[in-house]
Amino acid sequence: MKRIYIHVPFCIAKCAYCDFYSIEGNSMQKEYISALLKELEDRKSEILWPLKSLYFGGGTPSFLDFENLGLIFNYINDNFGFEDLAEITLEANPENIDAEKCSRWKELGINRLSIGIQSFNDEDLEYLQRIHSSEKAIAALKIAKNHFSNLSADLIHGISGANDERFIKNVEILTTLGIPHISMYSLSIEDRSKLRKLIINNERSNIDEETQARQFILAAETAAKNGYFQYEISNFSKPGIESQHNTAYWKGEPYAGFGPSAHSFNGTERRWNIADLKEYISAVESGAKYFETETIGQQEKYNEFILTRLRLVEGFTKQEFEQEFGEENFRKILLKTQNSPYFSVSENRIAFTREGLLISDALMSDLMEV
Ligand code: SF4
Fold first, then answer.
1. Number of domains observed in the structure of the chain
2. Among 26, 88, 210, 292, which residue carries the largest CB count within 10 Å?
């Protein structure tokens, strides 16, 4: 595997909507790094080098002390090394960004920052229980822009109380600041999130799916007017700035994930690490099992192909499909898609149309069974 994901499980405070595995505070960094380096060493034979991409996700990787991040880089540089154009991404939050950190991250080799902005409106940020302000978000982006040309910002649309103008303004601020990559996600109410409890207790108002869909269309139009192209359901980019690491996920390429809750995929088997930092550390250090695995059957492989490949605006080619699932299945999928206004179908390629992308979830489930 030539792509590595590292899960950093620390956050300053838990956001209301969050469903990712993380804990508040970073006092267990030392123990985490020791277990992570051991996991890297134990699974060294799975990695093929030079690496194509390295992605630090979380949690909040920018909340990791610089010295600890350096220890991970030392290990990876000593053992693997990178291709010339390898993409090395660090997810960062505005409250951790300053000029000194940006210079030091860059010195380590990080060449892409993905920044969790979510909104430039303080009421939205309060709804989401983010800890930064709009002012801090703008200041952080300006600093990051001075150090990195490959920059991405996340926005969340469909926040209750946010009208269309408010969300479009979020996109406009990013385009004005010259941030070349934007990820726009719909707010979803995850079962384990604080937001779900707050809504049930009437402490937050609920989301409205129609508003979400409308805001997404308006935002996508605003991005397009400003020279961004949509290359994936939720991702918009200036040419050449598409996320290489995430695109590899959507194309079904293998990757190895390290750290608590990290997932891996080797082409035939999925593996996921235990989503509990203390249990992860204790199991890795004692040599006990800290992960589960599952072999992917043909039907599941097919479903995943539909779910991931159609997320990409380019869809998939006949050759790519037939190589995995044969000519007969391609004929079946062709019959289901060729006269639909939601699919763009040529002899060689199947993809969603613009209308199809908007109702992709329902369309994908219709295609799930061959
Ligand atoms: S959304 Fe990001 S910053 Fe907020 S708690 Fe989740 S992982 Fe941490």
1. 2
2. 88
